[in-house]
Amino acid sequence: MIDIDRNIQRLVTELNAFPGVAIFSSCGGHPDPSTQSQRSAGEFEVSFNIYPLHGGWRSLELIASVVSECVEHGKLTITVWSMGGGGSVCFELVGREKADPDLLAKSLSIAREAFDDDLSAA
How would you class 6 by CB atoms within 10 Å of its CB: exposed for 0-12, middle for 13-18, buried for 19 or more? Predict the structure, then answer.
């Protein structure tokens, strides 16, 4: 895992295990953010694309379900945004208020394993 902040490595690995999900940016938070793309300490973000023909929509549905049902759901959001020019949309998963990325990764892993056959057929 090149250039992935240690505290979100498990979350990034788990999200990448979902069919049709491709991570393109992440930040685990920094005590003194030095660029606009860096999150403050106690926050994290993972940005990703979805490839619908490779099970991506079903994966997104499951990820969103886990986020909304997670014990820390009030600290987690998924936002959709456009790359501009009528191109593809992207998604950003954000944790705030010291949300635990490992707890979310564990919940995602359990959900993915429970629906593994369904995801691979999508």
Answer: exposed
